[in-house]
Amino acid sequence: MLSPRVLVLRAPGTNCDHETVHAFERAGAIAKRIHVHALAEKPSLADDYQILCIPGGFSYGDDIASGRILALELKTRLGDLLARVRDRGGLVLGICNGFQVLMQTGMLVADPDGKPRASLAHNRSGQFTDRWIRLEAKPGKCVMLQGLDQPFDLPVAHGEGRFVTRSTADLEALSAAGQLVLRYATDAAGQPTNPNGSAGDVAGVCDPTGRVFGLMPHPERFLVATQHPSWNGRLDGDAFGAGLAIFASAVKAVS
Q1: Is 142 annotated as catalytic?
Q2: Catalytic one among 16, 53, 96, 206?
Q3: What is the mean pLDDT of residues 117-145?
Q4: Which residues contact 105 (CB under 8 A, 6 or more apart)?
Q5: Which of 19, 73, 160, 220 is flagged as catalytic?
Q6: Whole-angstrom Cα distance, residue 26 to residue 168?
Q7: Tell me, what's the pLDDT at 113?
Q8: Among 6, 87, 72, which Cα is nearest to 40's?
């Protein structure tokens, strides 16, 4: 059986593409970095891939708003390419800046009229946040979180990751639809770990199909236990990091 192929989309300012390729390769896929301009010149390149991932970083310097310019480029130059990947049974993953991009494209949380129910705003602290946090997954239909039924840690690094909805009713509707699949949890001491003030402690969402997933934490930065700040004497040095499970779930789903 051939290994699944992953297209890791990069743009000016992207800085987590190499790590994301490595993560997918550790999970058993064949991954390749492709620049958005190359994909715009030949959109059919995406036909050779089962997963399309938009990694973290600061695409186009996060001018205007985080992820806005790359999202506009995807919509204007590539049209419905992301939807086509999803509709033919593929997966779309957005990590941190990639999550911001997906939110800007309307792929994740649009209402029946196509209007966004939510967005990602500046952290309530007004500061860039870079630390480890505790997470809880409720995978439901989300393909890439299957098997993550216990709380786990991942690092975050963002200044614009606060999930906000138009109204409380929109937050409740998204929750009822099973799209709020990843949330910031409490730590071992029972203290909240929400790093940005997200409504409902939301850290990641999926689209109604479960095949498009965006999250603010960085799973590519926790593939082995030794990457965790508390690994020495507290974690099994040979254990996989929790982030690898997300990539492995994605690869398994399209294998």
Answers
A1: no
A2: 96
A3: 96
A4: 71, 74, 75, 82
A5: 220
A6: 40
A7: 87
A8: 72
Edge-to-edge strand order for the sheet containing 30-35? 30-35, 5-10, 51-54, 91-95, 212-215, 202-206, 182-184, 129-137, 152-158
pLDDT digits (tens, 9 = 90+) for 15-34: 999 999 999 999 999 999 99
CATH superfamily of 5-254: Class I glutamine amidotransferase (GATase) domain (3.40.50.880)
Q: Work out the number of other CB atoms within 10 angstroms of the CB of residue 79.
A: 11
Question: Alpha-carbon dihedral of residues 114, 35, 131, 153, nearest 10 degrees?
Answer: 70
- The CA distance from 135 to 153, in Å, is 6
16 is catalytic: no
Q: How confident is the model at residue 117 (pLDDT cuts 50, 70, 90)?
A: very high
Q: Does residue 73 have an active-site annotation? A: no
Domain extents in the chain: 5-254
Query: How far is residue 24's CA from residue 247's CA, in Å, rounded to a whole number?
Result: 6
DSSP string over 129-146: EEEEEEEEE--TT-GGGT
